[in-house]
Design a protein that fits this description.
single chain, alpha+beta, seven-stranded antiparallel sheet, 7 strands, globular
Length: 204
């Protein structure tokens, strides 16, 4: 399972910090799928993952609640490894539910704090454009209010990844991912939204 999570982490890192050769239109060729709103957990597993603890944006402590069997919770600071190439990143971390059994469901949250809103918007747009380039089925909610949340969700269901959701509020970007497929995972799209929105609420 840790190999699958590593592949997912590599994809999200590429999406979040890989160089984009050119801009593309922000609309998908695949069918759209509605994003659940307002943000509420829609499964037992999703409700259990939501934490109310204070968040340490460097270590991701408090991002996810304590894991229950068969999953374990691991956290990692990614700040020092990213800042060398991304000076606008103030902190970055990941929190993961996974197991040691290959093919078991996993959930990953990555939280990035940027020095200002502008680089956060740029990174969010790069994530969205990478979804479009990959021809994933996406759905998006764009906020007209500067202080509200923008979010885009991509249904992948291939290569050990089920769905990825990216959310931005001011200078914060959070991604929530599950796998290996949506059918196999205990978390549903509403859970990803609820987890991401809960994280952004607590870091404001």
């Amino acid at each position: 399972m840790r190999c699958t999570v590593f592949r997912l982490f590599s994809l999200v890192m590429f999406v979040a910090f890989g160089a984009m050769a050119c801009a593309v239109a922000s609309e998908s060729g695949g069918p759209s799928e509605p994003v659940v709103s307002p943000a509420i957990a829609t499964s037992v597993a999703g409700a259990a993952a939501i934490s109310s603890a204070a968040i340490d944006a460097d270590t991701c402590e408090g991002v996810l609640a304590t894991a229950s069997a068969p999953h374990s919770l691991s956290r990692q600071s990614l700040t020092s490894s990213v800042q060398a190439s991304e000076p606008n990143v103030e902190s970055m971390c990941s929190a993961i539910y996974d197991t040691d059994v290959p093919g078991e469901p996993f959930l990953t949250v990555e939280l990035v704090k940027f020095s200002s809103d502008e680089p956060a918007v740029e990174r969010y747009e790069m994530i969205k454009d990478s979804f479009v380039q990959s021809d994933f089925a996406i759905s998006e909610v764009n906020s007209a209010d500067e202080g509200l949340i923008d979010q885009v969700s991509a249904w992948v269901d291939s290569d050990g990844i089920g769905r990825i959701m990216a959310m931005r509020q001011n200078g914060w970007v959070v991604t929530v991912s599950v796998g290996p497929t949506m059918a196999a995972a205990p978390w549903v799209v509403g859970d990803l939204e609820a987890i991401g929105a809960g994280v952004l609420e607590r870091v404001r």
